[in-house]
Amino acid sequence: MISDQKSIVLLGCLDTKGPDFSFLRACVLGHGESVITINTGTYGSTGDFPVDFDADEVAAAAGHTITELQARADRGYAVDVMGLGGASILKRLYEAGKLKAVMGMGGGGGTYIALAAMQAVPLGVPKLCLSTVASKDLSRQVGSKDITLMPSVVDIAGLNSISRMLMKQAAAALCGMANVPGDRNAANTNGRIAISMFGNTTACVTACTELLQTRGYEVFVFHANGVGGQTMESLIGEGCFEGVLDLTTTELADELCGGICSAGPARLEAAARNGVPQVVAPGCLDMVNFAHRDTVPVRYRQRQLYNWAPDVTLMRTDADENRELAIRLTTKLSQANGPVTILLPTQGLSQIDAEGGVFDAPQINRILFNAIRETANKDIVVKELKAHINDMSFARQAVETLLRLMGR
User: Distance between CA atoms of 365 and 258, rounded to whole angstroms?
Assistant: First the structure.
């Protein structure tokens, strides 16, 4: 029986790890918390404790049946389905006001399921995964979520002195996080503004931040390194911001050319979809990011390259790429349900795209600007400013334009 109060959710494969979850559940209960359990295993359950959502319900939440998964005997497919089902149930529990925190535990498959399910849980709700693969690169599975990974050291396959100690610590950590008062909506400000930034647009974003803070706004800066853009898009989608200064859209160039800072195909869509007022600039669209120079794809090695750092190689975008980037940018913004203004800094798009800089190429920038003007729909205001993106005059115009779009 699920109580009306908020509970700690424990999610995992109870068909193979029943004793482990039984111990973990006792630890959480020992902290005075109530517990909801979700079984994501496809071959049975456990009789060690009550299971609130058994495997058949999890599979059904993803549009499948346990008998189908068992008959198919495809582990990878089952792991994907149970992750989706777990996400659906966690979303339902959150919306019903019953989710206080969530913890998963397992090996490779169990970790994948837990992290996939946690994607449905908003920022601020504690999420912890005790995992045998926590020390691996799980950035793709974690995505933009505030998930804490904790190595299990030993396999989660039966209790021993090490596993019991770490489960106790994990339970204590999660319960502690769950009882920290949230202040996400408590800031006494005029509103929350998201800004995208790169090293090459730092001066602009710093100036915008200071201008907004003096007007009483809380500012959230996101590094446009791929994960940063994904995180910003995710939080915009969750309704965290009243306005967006998307001044550094460089992740579009990495998505186009296969750079290491792509934020995926959905970049620049959340604010448009949710009707959030936004000011957009083509900041750092003059560059694509790669790692060390020897990692640059062969097809690009004759292009104009510049080492921003030993492990960061920038490639100057060319005319064809800028034309395509303009189309991608305006296609996304043309779907906007809220007000949009595009500001074009005619004196340069980045720190190194200033007069005399290594990426200074005004003729290529002009192709970008013209294509943006030609392809933007009539509801989008496109304004050229005779300024470099890092000039104070550009920052002032960006801030004033956003506040006007917000009706402030």
Answer: 21
18-30 vs 161-178: helix crossing angle, rounded to 10: 50
Q: Write out pLDDT tens, residues 12-41.
A: 999 999 999 999 999 999 999 999 999 999
CATH classification at residue 323: 3.40.50.12030
Q: Which residues contact 358 (CB under 8 A, 6 or more apart)?
A: 304, 306, 352
In this prediction, what percent of the chain has a pLDDT beyond 70? 98
User: Is residue 259 within 8 Å of residue 300, measured between CB atoms?
Assistant: no
pTM above 0.90, yes or no: no
* Spans in the chain with pLDDT lower than 70: 1-4, 183-188
Report the phi/psi class of residue 48: left, alpha or beta, with left for phi > 0 and alpha for psi in -120 to 50: alpha
Which residue shows structure tokens 């104009």?
A: 304
Q: Are residues 253 and 137 in the same domain?
A: no
What is the CATH classification number for the domain harbouring 165?
A: 3.40.50.12020
Residue 125 three-state SS: coil
Q: Are 104 and 118 in contact (CB under 8 A)?
A: yes
66-104, pLDDT tens digit by residue? 999 999 999 999 999 999 999 999 999 999 999 999 999
pLDDT at 408: 74
Tokens of 376: 């933007």
* DSSP 8-state assignment for residue 187: -
- Distance between CA 23 and CA 273 in Å, rounded? 44
Structure token pair of residue 252: 């579009």
CB 106 within 8 A of CB 114: yes
- Report the C-alpha gap between 306 and 304 in whole angstroms: 7
Distance between CA atoms of residues 314 and 288, nearest Å: 6
Q: How many independent structural domains does the chain possess?
A: 2
Distance of CA 16 to the CA centre of its chain: 32
